[in-house]
Amino acid sequence: MRKAIKTLLFVIVVLMGFFMASISKASETTYVYNGTYGYTTESEEEFEIVNGVKHIINRGTGISDSGKTLKPGRLNHIFVADIKNNDSLKVVTWAVKREDNSGFTRCALLDIAKDYEEKHPGWVILAGVNADQFYTGFGTGLGSNGTDYYAPQPYYPYISDGDNLFAISPYANCNNIAGFKNNGDDVQIVYGTSDRSIKGLYVYVYDDNKNVLGTFPAKNLNVLDQLGENETTVIAPYASETRSLVTLSKSSTNSFYVVENPELSYVSNSEAWTWKADSGYNVNAFFGKGNISKIENSISLNTNSFAIETTNLELKALLKVGAYVRCQYEFDDGFAGIEEATGFHTCHILNGEVQEVANGYNTPNYPRSMFGCDDNGKVYFIATEKSTEPKDGMRGQEMNALMLQYGITNAFQCDGGGSVQSICRNEDGVLDYSQSPYEGGYRPVLTGHFIAMKVESISLDISDVDNNNAKVKVVDENKEYGQLAIKVRHDENGEEKLQIIDINTDTIELNNLIKNTKYSVQVCIKQADGTYKELYIKRAFTTLKDFPLINSVSIKLQEDKSYKIEIDLLDVDEVVQKASIYVNGKKKSINVRDSKITLDFEKGTEGIFNIYFEFDCTFNGETRTVKIEEYNLNATCDIYLEHIKSSIESFFDFE
């Protein structure tokens, strides 16, 4: 049995109809601010990904500070989500943890999004861009070379899943952070620039269901002196100048509650960094969580573990082996309840007021990643391309003018240059890059922020696709829905054809399909009134092309004692890209576009001919070389279709 597609999807979200809308700004809308800087939108293509989330491809021309029209061909990818009015959507931030839970690792943005989906079953990423800048290496340079004693880590604070993973930056502050509310407010972003502050280090204790039993302030990180009354400390090793973790030892009449194998334990700044002390950057920063594995009166820690010591009787009563704890630095009340937040390099618009952004970083034409919101509950992500001409990146001032066109009232720039990446789901529901790479490939980055959507737990499996048939399997994982159905769509002569099939068994066979045609399958719920509610679970497949056929091969002896080989090749769908014939080990190329092919072989070939064909066949984007079964022929004889068609069956037997 031929197999072309065998893909098991556990809840893949795909579009309700990823479509191109009209070009809405073809009339060349120009926005100018500060009297000079501006941006003219020349064309705009709008696609709906799913559930009202849009992908806008904007092309235009910038206007410089002198009013000069800049090079045309600016290209911006804009993603818009109405978070306020759709509770199945939210903005999330994410970074990929190291395997040993000692920190984070850099990845391409697409891999960060896929890791989020893997760690959050029931949620899928619809679109997103790279987030904060990040330190790349280990060293003492906190400037443009991007090195730090702990690497990688973001330049600014970072919150994910409610965890304040980086509350304090390597510059010893908690500024330049923007949080996503993900609620019903008109303005979806809360931000902190120079007035954000830290309340201190706190210890949380949870029950077996991850409900908070208590929250307790700590005196400081790594207090190695004896604690006073009602005091708490968290002890966690930090990096030395050789990058190894410093061993921290302490004995006490108090108990140490040790988390040996944490979900995460990460000191991202330390008072002990003497070179930073001269610059005023030597403050403690830490995040850790996990289950307490042992209780001791003496500790010596030199791995990514941590321990809690306390004289607080209420906290002591909650701490025990197996108890789940989280230790993190808390922001002031302005960020209370914020579960997702990222740092930003430049604030572009605040409360509708355009900010002055002219500096050495914003003046060049860079690719840039931005995010923002309007006053109607919508969130925007923007990524600007710079690859081949005429694409030329964007100045920061041009970005301001562009965002004014979309009514963005709060806007922030994450990063610029080769780190800029954007992704979204394409028309087949596959998460992929939406822009060209700046450097020939996609640079590994640390964090991304994304538009995520909650989806139904229904799996969709499409298999055994051939020219005219396919199998569809739909399983309601949690048995929470009633009558399910599928809508099968395809385009025939420019007209959409729709078939609705009620699901009475797990697997449905689709027959009498049109060869070489793209079909989409969407899961639906059949409602009591007989109508069908579409779910956001969809998959596309393409039926096979016609197989190439060799109708006949003949060998005839010529008067000059050479041999003429004639091949009648039928390849209606032009599957064969390259073909060769081997006669007694000698190879000749075949023009696969000729219906009748004649090849002359030199004199002197006698007796039995050993013949086989080698075809490079391309089908649905996959290419493989296929060797047709060998045949031994006497001169002046023919091979006909019935003798070789069985070997043709192997052309597209994709396992």
Spans of 5+ residues with little confidence (pLDDT < 50)? 1-27, 633-655
Looking at how many chains there are and whether they match, the oligomeric state comes to: single chain
The strand order across the widest sheet is 2-3-4-5-30-29-31-27-28
User: How much helix, percentage-wise, in residues?
Assistant: under 10%
With helices defined by DSSP (H or I, 4 residues minimum), what is the helix count?
5
Helix- and strand-based class?
mainly beta
Cα shape: globular
* Rg over CA atoms: 32 Å
Overall pLDDT: 82
Report the span from N to C terminus.
Answer: 9 Å
Structurally, the number of domains stands at 5
Strand portion, in percent?
A: over 45%
Biggest sheet statistics: 9 strands, antiparallel
Compact overview of the structure:
The protein is mostly beta strands.
Keywords:
single chain, 655 residues, mainly beta, 9-stranded antiparallel β-sheet, 50 strands, 6% helix, disordered C terminus
What does this structure look like?
By secondary structure, this protein is mainly beta. The chain has five domains: 31-80, no CATH class; 89-192 and 342-371 and 405-454, no CATH class; 198-331; 459-542, Immunoglobulins (Immunoglobulin-like), CATH 2.60.40; 549-652, Beta-1,3-xylanase, CBM31 domain (Immunoglobulin-like), CATH 2.60.40.2450. Helix content is 6%, strand content 48%.
